[in-house]
Structures are given as C-alpha cells and as structure tokens.
Amino acid sequence: MKNRVKKLCALLLAFSMVFGIGLVPPSNAEMVESPETVNITILGTSDVHAFIYPWEYKLGEEDSDAGLAKVYSVVKEVMDENPDAILIDNGDTIQGTELTDVYKNDDTTVFPIIDVMNYMEYDSWTLGNHEFNYGLDVLERIMADAEFPVIAANVYNDDGSNYVLPYIVKEINGIKIGILGMVTPNIPRWDGDKVENLEFVSLIDDAKKWVKVLREDEKVDIVIASLHAGVEPEYWEDGGDGARAVAEQVPEIDAILAGHAHEDIEGELINGVLIAEPKRYGNRVKRFDFIMEKNGDYWDLKEKTSYNYDTNSYEAAPEILDLAEEYHQATLDYVNTPIGEATGDFVPVGEIMGIPTAQIQDTALVDFINKVQMKYTGADVSLAALFISESNLLEGPLTIKDAAYIYKYDNTLYETEVTGAELKSMMEWSANYFNTYKPGDVTISFNPDIRGYNYDMFSGVEYDID
What's the predicted TM-score (pTM) here? Predict the structure, then answer.
C-alpha cells in the first residue's frame, strides 16, 4: 500500500510540474524539494511606456492596471517570499506617457521612470525600440541616471564595439544566471537618422553568438533572453526580428522574456524554450521559476514554469506614489494646458458597435491630422493612421491631453516624391487592413494580422475602398 501511495504522489507531482505553466503563482515552499534543490525566481516587466502612476494622462482618468506603483506591490510580495528574486525590464520604458514630454529634455533631475526603477532595485534594463525615439543624446543622458546595467547585445557602434553591455551574470546560491538583452533590429526603419551611427543585427545571429559566450565562457547554469521583440516576426523573412525563430534556432536558451507586441502570454514552449510576455504599461508582471538540482559540481535545470501577475488586483505601492508625486503633478499641469476650442465633435457617433467610425468613413479628425502634415511639408497628398482607433476631439475647450490622445507618438514627419502608380500601390497595401467581402458577411471586418496603426488614410486624393 505504501508503494502505491508513493507512486500516486509521484504521478501527481509530475502532473503538476508539466502543467504548472501559468496556472497559479508558485510559492518558494512548493518549489523546494530538498537541501540540494534551489528555486531561482525572475520577475520581468516590458513595455511600461513611462507609466508610474495608475493614471491615463490622455484621458484624465485612473488606469487601474497600469504603472510601476502597481508593479512594485507585486515585486514586494514576491521578494517577501524569495528575497533573491531577480527583477529585469525588457524595454520601451522611457517613452509613452506625457510625463516623458515634460522631462525628456530636463537635465536638472533624474529621469522619473529611472528614478523609480532605481528605488525598485531593478537588476537590468534591456533597451526597446522606443528608447531611440528622442535621439542618442537624450537616451544616453537618461541611461546615465540608471543605477543598474543597460543591456542590448545586438546593437553596435560603427567601430564594431557594443553600444551597451550585451549581458549580465547574476549568481545566487552558487547558481549562475546569464541575462542576455536584445532588441528588434528594425529600429533604423523607424528612427533612421537618429541611429545612423549604430548597427542593429539579427536576433538569431547574435543570440547564437552571445549564448555561446554565456554557456562556454561565463559557465552559466541558466540563460534568460530579455528580448524586446514579439514572438512572431515583423519584416525579416528568416524570422530574425522575432522571438519564435530565436527559440527554434537557439535551444540553449532556457526562457525568453518577449515584448514589443504588447501581448499577454503566460507561457509557451517553443523547441523547449519557455517564452512569455507581460502585456504592456505594467498590466502584468512576468514570473519565471527555475528548479535547480545539485548534481556533483554542477546544477541541473529540472523544471521551469511561468506566471503572469495581473496588477489590476493590487493596490498601488504608496512608496512609489510618494516618490513620484512631484513628477505626476507636473505632468497633470502640463496636459491640462489649454490650446484651443473645438466648435463640434471631429468624429460622429458610430453606427456599428465595435467598428471605429474614423476608419470606415471620412472624418474631420483624420482630415485635420493630414491637413497639418500637408501644411508643414507642402505636400499634395498626406497619409496618417489613428494610433487609438476610438480617438476624437469633442466640442468644447481643448488641452494638450486632447492632442496627445489623437496622436500619441513623437513620430518624424517626412516628405517624399512618388509616382501616381506608387501612390496607388501604397493605397492598395493600406486597404489590406480590411477583409475582402464574402457572401454571408453582415458587416465590415478587419485583417487580424494587420495592426490598426498600419492602416493609413489619405487626404488630397479622392478614393473608394470596394
């Protein structure tokens, strides 16, 4: 009877280990099986986009699952359980809210999001693509404020040296953990002239290069790739700008903290590599756990699990609210600055629930954006996308937060010459956002593989989408 009970317990333990990815946040007591077994916990954030307070400045209202104040409540809870837990950030950290507009050029104070991350004692920060939006001078000034390492292995200076550190190594209870940072290599597409002295190389190629260094030279027991890229590729035919291809070709990585795509991925095994992503704005905090078992002079990885904490169920940490109160108030004052008045709503009331009106008919809002672009370039035709599909300018006084709501990114405006054929090709490409009508369809639908911010609408030319 005793043997049957032992076998049943072993089966139940195996079942819980295999299916433990993302079900419940594991406690340290559950993980430790013997004195020769150690649980290594890694916490990760990604795409925080300068959210500190749980507040949406563009709308002037609370955002109950956003901000590092919420994140820190999760971090404290986990650190109480496992004081040796490692905390890393996966990029797109300094750009996003209007707080950045207030402080990005202020060299008299520590940049607010970095000030908070210093207090939270982050162990590393991987650069994201939006870190480069303001140019290298601004980025380097902000990086200098950080009391933790900044990493991005696949970014090189024009002399071939690394722009920042490629990785860090942490040691906990004799176990060495290598954290490799990488960022999407598509940055020159978006910020070309701002990064002209830098080279961004394939995630696949550099993962192979630096994982070999970590395994063979640094002798690490665990490799984590903090990879600021989505699971799926964006532009590279070989997948060299996505996490999936990295996992498929570099199985020596134990886990990938993905980002960039703002997806909520609790845990997915690809070629034995555990990939997860913690959404955006501090909505989620990623937790990886690695069960390490002593085997002579070495440590073996016996099991790995992942879990996403939903910050909506946590109170904002008062320490962070107090620390960032001055930054928050300065941003509120800025976004509430009056800039004009609207004589009417720029987008009419929607006719079909769930379908953005401004994307299916001509509206004053898109016309307004395009007319501004045409005014400052002298172009005959302008194209623009809505980054927030439900954005609008409502009748009445307008403030900076209203302008930020309809155009949330500090993009660079370009003028270029195109032929009529090239213009038509661009318009056809943009129209791929819509699904082609099929018999039985009752309304318009959209291509799920194309993000709304890639659907451009044109002014200066009359056209129909059929």
Answer: 0.86
